[in-house]
Amino acid sequence: MEKSIDLAVINKTMNYVVEKYSPHGDKIGWLMIASILVEAWDLYSFAFIVVFINELYHPSVLLLGLAGAGSQAGAVVGSILGGWLTDKVGRRYVFLGTMIMFIIFGFAQAFVPTIEALVVVRIILGIPLGADIVNGYTYIMEYMQSGKREVMGNRWQFMFALGIVLSILMVLFLLSLGMNHEYLWRVILGLSGVPAVILFVLRRNLPETVVWLIQRGRFVEAKKVAGEIYGDSLAMLPNADQTMPEVKLSGFLKEIYHDRTRWRGTLFGWVAGFAQGVEFTSFGFYIPMMLILLNFSGVFQTNLITLALYLVGLVAGWCGPQLTPKLGQRRISIIGFSIAGLSLLVVAGAIFTGDLILIPFASATFLWGHYWAASNVMTIPSMVAPVKYRGIASGFSYIFLKVAAFMSIFLFPSLFKAVGEGNATLIAACFSLMGLLAAVFILPELYGYKGNENSSDEGENGILKNAE
Asked: Tell me, what DSSP letter sits at residue 248?
């Protein structure tokens, strides 16, 4: 016997759920965006303890870079694997699995016997990091309504800054206690498992997203979850499950390219994501090391200066999303990349002329610009994607960020040595220009975007037949 599924009804129901009930998703949105704290602590705390690892073990420049970039390499794998699994098996299973995996390997960093072992652990650790970020964006886009979800998605840079500030404070605290550097770096990296435990406890009872259940034809469960959360049993849906087509990568590429708005938003996310990734991890990640190399200050004083800089970034990371409804996504990007690029030119000029006093101030304006520029590079591709490809879309976008981060963290110390700090900073400024050009010529204004939650490539008559 064959039953027909009216795709128009499915599409209408998904849009109905998002528009009517999304305001209830603020709490879920915060729980998902908070996972950025885990990655921020793990990735950027390394920037503050790398000097201790270097002084204790004297690794080669490439091995030291690989230790810092290892989690980014793993995140490349986690981004695409997590995106595919998020669309295939569901959002809930992925976020539970990633948190468990991160707890284990986050704590394991504190007990590695060698730097080579640390590299291996950090590569494995990056897999759940990449997958969880991707998964979190699917929840935000499916539990929050248009307008609000953009603001929440753009807050990821605020959470990055918060994670960095907390990690600096912990480093300063342990330094003030006089902790042996051998233990200090292990404690700092191992503590990354603590926020993962907290998030796991807070998230463990979160349900699957209703719109994903609908898109996958799991109508019985969708009606049950909607009834429990919203008090609405979604009477328009069938009372029996239906088999839906499998999610395919080729289908994602076809779907995104078919729709001009989706394609431009996605392409912007890829280009600007790569640009801001290089921009930051080739300069911002190494701000503490650069200040020390330039004999600007000692280790403790450098961390104090860095803390002040990231407090500026924290304010910028909060203000950017709050101003997005007024400025729009496009202007936020243009302003952000412009400020970041000009600031890097000032830093390079200060290095060449020896006016080192300018570096902290220019670094502060750089972080302000960067946190605006980077705010929407994950939000936009995740927002414009249809439900069935949203995990893959988020994963693809995050790959560009993680490839950029891996390349920069791994290679930038060598670039320092090869061309000098000033020329390396000029190279970083070129990527700010790349992001600016993408915002000006590729990105349409997408604030308040309301596209089809369903895919547009599923047949001309809107009817899908499935054998029972």
From this structure: -
CATH superfamily of 2-233+246-463: MFS general substrate transporter like domains (1.20.1250.20)
User: What's the CA gap between 255 and 260, in Å, rounded?
Assistant: 10
Nearby residues of 348 by Cβ (< 8 Å), 6 or more positions away:
422, 423, 425, 426, 429
Top-confidence residue, 117 or 387: 117
CB 174 within 8 A of CB 300: no
**Contact between residue 71 and residue 129 where contact means Cβ atoms under 8 Å apart:** yes
Q: Which of 126, 435, 81 is nearest to 269 (CA)?
A: 435
Q: What is the DSSP string of 443-465?
A: PPP-TT----SS-S-S-SSSEEE
Contact 244, 378 (CB under 8 A): no
Q: Is the pLDDT of residue 287 over 80?
A: no
pTM: 0.83
SS3 content of the chain, % helix, strand, coil (to 5): 80, 0, 20
Q: Which helix (H) or strand (E) holds 383?
A: helix 379-384
Give the start-to-end residue ranges of the domains of the chain.
2-233+246-463
Tens of pLDDT, residue by residue over 111-163, are: 999 999 999 999 999 999 889 888 888 888 888 777 788 899 999 999 988 98
